[in-house]
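Researcher: Next sequence.
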Amino acid sequence: MKLQTPIIIVNFKTYLESTGQKAVELAKNAEKASKETGATIVVAPQFVDIARVAEAVEIPVFAQHIDPIKPGNSTGHILAEAVKEAGAIGTLINHAERQLKISEIEAIISLTREKGLVSCVCANNPTTCAGVAAMRPDIVSFEPPELIGTGIAVSKAQPQIVTDTVNLVRKVNSEVTILCGAGVSQSEDVFVALKLGTQGVLVASGIVKAKDQYSILRAFADATKQ
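Model: Next structure:
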């Protein structure tokens, strides 16, 4: 499955502001902004909220992680088939807060391909992004971990490294969708990220912890149309 770009992926993480009924409300705000602007907005709630969110909205829903396992005796793990049946159409992989081994990343990408799920792999530097892109995921997201949650956007703090990442990834994979994340908190951050050659952003606290989540979502969505 190929999502229309530019893309905004909202990672709900485990914030109380995006848990349970609040996850549904945030997803509905994302859907409203998406429908009003035509922007592609993806939401990634906690596992226990995937089904209720997917039932409440029509925009794409991702899991925050899946494990490289087959159905069976893997207590406490996340099964690809389970998140898909719950309504997710894709998953984040290797987020800085849920890092994996290279072999696990490759296995999960293969699993998503087999199960018809969209794969979005996070990586922390240009070289790793290029290495991941060679595995042929659907999306690669560049996220320097030191900027995550700081409010200092990578597109502003390290613009050259974003451009370098895009160029390096394109040398090994001309089709993968490239996002950037970490510290994205203002609509200008989205605009700059797109100008640097990315095709969208991965964002969390900048939206989830905002006092007016809809207004920020709408501003982000508008920025993808400039």
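Model: Residues 95 and 210 are 22 Å apart (CA to CA). The longest helix spans residues 21-37.
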